Amino acid sequence: MACEGQQLKTGFLGGTFDPVHLGHLIKAQDVWEALGLERVYFVPTAANPLKEQLPVADPSARKTMVELAIEGDSRFGLLDLELDSSAPKFTIETVRILAEQFPGQRLFWIIGTDQLKGLHLWREIEKLAGLVEFACLERPGHPFEDPGIPGLRLHWIEGHVCEISSTEIRDRAMKGEYYGLFLPEKVHSFINSKHIYH
Questions:
Q1: Burial letters for 74-84: b for 16+ Cβ neighbours within 10 Å, e otherwise?
Q2: Rounded CA Rg of the chain
Q3: Which of 144, 63, 77 has the alpha carbon at shortest distance from 111?
Q4: What is the dihedral of CA 20, 24, 26, 31, to 10 degrees?
Q5: Is the separation of the CB atoms in 111 and 119 below 8 Å?
Q6: FRET pair for 182, CA 20 to 30 Å: which of 46, 104, 127, 189?
Q7: In a domain, 172, yes or no
Q8: 89 vs 34, which has greater pLDDT?
């Protein structure tokens, strides 16, 4: 939390959240705590521009799952500005909107070390680096590497290393295996009630 006279700091965690799981929540908490952020917003995307595979759950279901996951936690919020398009949105487009919505604040885009190697492929990355600072957490099997992007403001966050993946959760659900411990109970119940991945 910012004290009087200090610049507010807000974090953003993008992803398909197909489904959102405890690893996402822990990642958001670690950055919130380490950087003293006012709030971390989850930003579900319609599709990832750098991935060919489309999300399994539809945008409405993924939005609902995030809402259920963060319900009652004032540290977290949801921004659905990327879900109104069937085409992939680039982070630079989203961040330009966020810069207008959060004027005068320091904006932090949360990523994992698995994304560092391909960060130079992000659309208009040098302009993006001028608009946001990046908060980076370790992902298993992906050591920290400086991507060497001019002007990049990168904060290394020593948080919890979680080997939970949405892909594994979907696979376990399709195979009829138990996956409830990997995500909030409300999200687990929603998936089961709607038979999303079964």
A1: ebbbebbbbbe
A2: 16
A3: 144
A4: -140
A5: yes
A6: 46
A7: no
A8: 34
The CA distance from 141 to 49, in Å, is: 23
- Total Cβ atoms within 10 A of residue 87: 8
**Confidence bin at 87 (pLDDT 50/70/90):** low
Strand partners, 9: 106
Structure tokens at 60: 């409405």
The whole-angstrom distance between residue 96's C-alpha and the CA centroid of its chain comes to 17
For residue 120 the two structure tokens come to 């130079």
User: How many Cβ atoms from other residues are within 10 Å of residue 66's Cβ?
Assistant: 25
Over residues 4-10, the mean pLDDT reads: 84
For the record, the structure tokens of 166 come out as: 């949405």
* 155 located within any domain: yes
Considering the domain boundaries, does residue 173 fall inside one?
no
> Taking the alpha carbons of 113, 119, 120, 125 in that order, is the dihedral positive or negative?
negative
Q: Tokens 């398909």 identify what position?
A: 16
Is 39 domain-assigned? yes
CB count in 10 Å sphere of residue 12: 25
